[in-house]
């Protein structure tokens, strides 16, 4: 089952002073096991563009909305047996402590 793992900042990071896991080790381990299919860091929010259409009119905005406190800073595409495995993978990502991780399964019309 495929999961999109959104890597996000968080306004309330973990206060544990223990050393964070190494991101390069995390990537290498999950790539080697075939659990991470793709992933990357995203450019700064100042490079973002928001596109909407309202009443047939194209609305394009640069950057994030000012009230945004948490932003997506990266992603990983995971292949997992189930949600439990996806949670275990996300739990070991450094940003699970410094930020937050959102897991979302891909939509399947077959249920």
From TrEMBL:
InterPro entries: Dimeric_a/b-barrel (IPR011008), YCII (IPR005545). Residues 1-105 form the YCII-related domain. Belongs to the YciI family. This is YCII-related domain-containing protein.
